Amino acid sequence: MNKRPTINDVARLAGVSKRTVSRVINGASNVGKATRERIDEVIKETGFSPDKQARGLAASRSFLIGLIYDNPDALYIDQVQRGVLSVCSEKGYELVVHPCNYNTDDFISNCIQFVSRSRIDGVIILPPVSEAKELAEALREKQINYVRMASVDLDDHSNIVVSDDRAALRDLARYMVSLGHRDIGIISGPQRYYSSKERLEGFLETLNELHVEVPVDRIIEGKNSYESGIECARTLLIQSPRVKAIFANNDEMAAGVLKVAHEMGITVPDELSVAGFDDNLLAARVIPALTTVQRPVGDMAALAARKIIAQIEGTEVSETETYLVKPHLIIRDSIKRV
C-alpha cells in the first residue's frame, strides 16, 4: 500500500464497517473478540494511525480543546499553550486558540460562537476572561465543558485551577522587609481584575502587619504591559524622596522599570530594588536578573487540560490532583539589602 492507510482501508481489509473499526479504536466494549482481533491485526499490518475522524465516529467528539484568552503577555500565553499541549498530545487532542477582547459588550456571545463554530469538546479560559461569571453561566447553560484558570476560588473545583497569588505576595513582602526595605513603590495591575487585587492586597496587608506604610501616591495602576511599566516607573522615580524598591504586578512591567532606571542613571539593585511576578522567560534574561514570584503556569495549564479531558470523557481526575497551586519566590539579582 503506497499511500497512507485510511480507516476505509482497514474496514475493507477486515471485512467490517468503518463504524466498527472506530469502535475498536475507541475501546468500545460492544465488539466481539474475534472481530476486534481481526481489526487489530489489520491495523498492525497496514501501519494505520487513527485520526480524529475515525475516533469521532464512535465517540461523537471532535477531540478539539479550545483556549480563550485576552492577555497582552505573549510569554504567559506561550507557557499556557505548552502546558496544555503536553497533555493534549498524550491524550490525542488538538488545541484551538481564540484571543478575544474582554472589554467589549459582545465578548460572551463571541466566545460562545467560537465554541459552536469550532465544534470543540471543551474550553480552557485564562484570566482575566476567566473571571467573568456571566461567561461561566453561559457555558453551563449551553452544556459546554469548561475549566477556568484564576487567582481566586470562583467555581466548583472540577471547573477551576487557582493560583494563590495573595499568599505568594505575602512571602515577597516579608522578604523585602527582611532586607530592610521600608520605602516601597508599587505598580499594580488593573484593579478590575481579581488577580491584580489579590496581589496588591496580599502585599499591602503584609507590609501593614510589618509596620511598613505605602503612601497612596506610591501606588500606580498599570496595564500589565511593558509600555505601562515604563510609564508608571517614570511617575514613581521622579518623586522626591525617591523610592528604594518597586514591586510590579508582572515581569513585563518590572522590565519596564529596569529600562527607566537605566535611562535615569539609577543603578539596580544598588540604588533601586525591583521585583516582578510570573517568572516568565524574560525574568532570568534581563540585567540584572529579576527577583520575582514564579507562578507554575505550565503545570497549572496541564492540570486544567487534565480536568477538561476528564469532563469530556466522563472520568475522574486523580485524587492526587488539586485545584490550588501556590506560586513561590525566586530570588535573583534585582533586590539588595539596604
SSE arrangement:
Blueprint lengths: L6 H8 L3 H8 L7 H14 L5 H8 L4 E6 L4 H18 L2 E6 L7 H12 L3 E4 L7 H9 L3 E6 L9 E4 L1 H14 L5 E5 L5 H16 L9 E3 L4 H12 L7 E4 L2 H13 L9 E3 L16 E3 L2 H17 L10 E2 L2 E3 L8
Parallel strand pairs: 1-2, 1-3, 3-4, 4-5, 5-11, 6-7, 6-8, 8-9
Antiparallel strand pairs: 10-12
Description:
By secondary structure, the protein is an alpha/beta fold. The chain is 44% helix and 14% strand. It is built from 12 helices and 12 strands. It has helices at residues 7-14, 18-25, 33-46, 52-59, 74-91, 107-118, 133-141, 165-178, 194-209, 226-237, 251-263, 297-313; strands spanning 64-69, 94-99, 122-125, 145-150, 160-163, 184-188, 219-221, 245-248, 273-275, 292-294, 324-325, 328-330. The strands form 3 sheets. It has a 6-stranded parallel β-sheet with strand order 2-1-3-4-5-11, with helices on both faces. Strand 8 (245-248), helix 11 and strand 9 form a beta-alpha-beta unit. The longest helix has 18 residues, at 74-91.
